[in-house]
Amino acid sequence: MKKVRSKRLCIIGVGLIGGSLARAVREKGLYHEIIGCGRSVANLERAVELGIIDNFEQDIGKAVNDCDMVVVAVPLGAFKGVFEQMKDHLPDTAVVTDVGSAKQSVIEDAKKALGNAYQNFVPGHPIAGTEKSGAEASFAELFQERRVILTPTDDTSVEAVARVRAMWECTGAEVIDMEPAHHDEVLAATSHLPHVLAYTLVDTLAAMSERDEIFQYAAGGFRDFTRIASSDPAMWRDICIANRDAIMKVLGQYQRDLTALSQAILNNDESALFELFSRAKQARDRSINSD
Amino acid sequence: MKKVRSKRLCIIGVGLIGGSLARAVREKGLYHEIIGCGRSVANLERAVELGIIDNFEQDIGKAVNDCDMVVVAVPLGAFKGVFEQMKDHLPDTAVVTDVGSAKQSVIEDAKKALGNAYQNFVPGHPIAGTEKSGAEASFAELFQERRVILTPTDDTSVEAVARVRAMWECTGAEVIDMEPAHHDEVLAATSHLPHVLAYTLVDTLAAMSERDEIFQYAAGGFRDFTRIASSDPAMWRDICIANRDAIMKVLGQYQRDLTALSQAILNNDESALFELFSRAKQARDRSINSD
Fold this sequence. Notes:
The structure is a homodimer of 291-residue chains.
Chain A lengths: L7 E5 L3 H12 L5 E5 L3 H9 L5 E2 L3 H5 L4 E4 L6 H8 L8 E4 L5 H10 L7 E2 L1 E4 L19 E4 L7 H12 L4 E4 L2 H27 L4 H6 L3 H7 L6 H10 L1 H23 L3 H18 L4
Parallel strand pairs in A: 1-2, 1-4, 2-3, 4-5, 5-6, 8-9
Antiparallel strand pairs in A: 7-8
Helix pairs in contact in A: 4-5, 7-11
């Protein structure tokens, strides 16, 4: 059994989420040392400069060596490779967690790749973010008063869950548990579908002949509506693939609803339009704290 | 010929837009008196209390009497009735303008209802707003550094256009001219379609069995994306009817693009997804000043 020398945290993927987590736990002194790992040397060097991480290591095996907490914060398509590379280098006492936006695919990857370490893997997802990417965009307050969802399975060590929970609570987040499949459905509806719709809208308009003029007259509502279309394309490609079934289900329902609305416009059906818009406004006003 | 006693402005519909215009021109002392007109006495009384208008009159004929500028800021479905009621009471020198989100339907209503006064009607549309409604939500800075589009026709008096332009410039807006049909196409794409999509999304999610939970886990991106679904339902019903053809055209294209994206997800077509998301991100980052 390898011995953990000190409280060391390894963040694989020092981007907006990984970097913000590092900043937040550093402020609380939860770890003695924070190691960054990732593919872009420039980003890792910048993260050291900014004081987000203490140092970095590009070899995943070396990066996780001697760490007691490993956080995987890479696009979902990279998880399998990352798990495979860390497997033989993890201390027995190390806990591994992640921040992926879909949980069933990550659990499957972890189960296949982590071997014995799988029981110390705690699937997690902080419900926080901006449209920006990279260490530069990270900030310690990102998780304050936000939710972090953990989706442990029957195989997950209870002690590992407790350690991941403690880490996130120290960022100011509220930590809750959820079934993995249920997480994937809820996130498909509230996050993945809106991103798909926003990307499509910008792409539809960008293909129009008056594209320059169109974007020129876009007002505040449009800016807010399409902000999420400035998110990282690789990350969202991977989410669409990883959470395909749940996304397809809610997207299909959305397309049916949009067709019904389109029919109401075509038919000058004023009462159907008023009813739908009123119902939506009420649902949003009731449920969402707007500002 | 009726004589205009002093510089009087009449705002029909003292809501977010009408109220903000009144506040902005009042700060510059452009008019000696500002009369409000509208259906809700409570809203008009509040507007007087807040110092937005000097007094109010619920009869449109009396409200426009002796005014040299009349601004119609009501939902598009109410324009025809408003024009008919003011027609016989407008001073010959009065200029009438509006703030409607679709211009061809307003021009048609004005042409039919205003008689001789039609030549002094200047169709206009400030590209500004929030999801809030009512006089209470208005603020003088709403139009600062925003665009106001005027869509005069061949019949419109050049002097009337100049007076409306001067009014809007005094709010800090940049005033530009556009063909009515072109305005309606550009706004269908940048404003009307996004509202339709956001209302539909909230309605789709609100109909799901996990609706309460879904809204509970909605993060910042969702809040921004759906903010416009908190807009006034009557206003947006009327916009969908008034600008039906332009909205149907861009909505149809959007539906085709969304179906293509849905097919790419279904087929695990990673390169199609990456390409689309990258293209959209680039288009947005290049064209939109995000914050």
